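Course assignment 3, question 2. Fill in each field.
Student: A.L.
Task: Predict the tertiary structure for the chain below.
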Amino acid sequence: MSRIPWHRDGPVAEPITQARTGLTQDVRGRQRRYIAAMLVRSACVVVMALTWNRWPVLAMCALVGGVAIPYVAVVAAQAGWRQQRGPRHALAKVHEEPAVRVPLEPTLILPPEHNPAA
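Answer field:
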């Protein structure tokens, strides 16, 4: 049984295309960044709770961090895929002729006839 390593110890191959990373890799990276930001936020909340009476300035800074970090984390997580896509190529303009309007003549609508004999 041969032992083939799962990863190579040599230099990493340089990419020859401008292809972006796969969606699963991108989602995994965004999830890791978001979880890291939420761990920092949790640490801010703990620091705020522990220092509220002794060092109120530090507690207020931790409170501001705990409030601001979720917004920054969501914006940073959503921005990752858009940054990798690059500029969009302009689509070819399709010039469609406007639909021809057919003028309709007025129509006389008669009420239904009542046939008492039937």
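Instructor remarks: The longest helix spans residues 56-85. The chain has a mean pLDDT of 77.
Grade: pending
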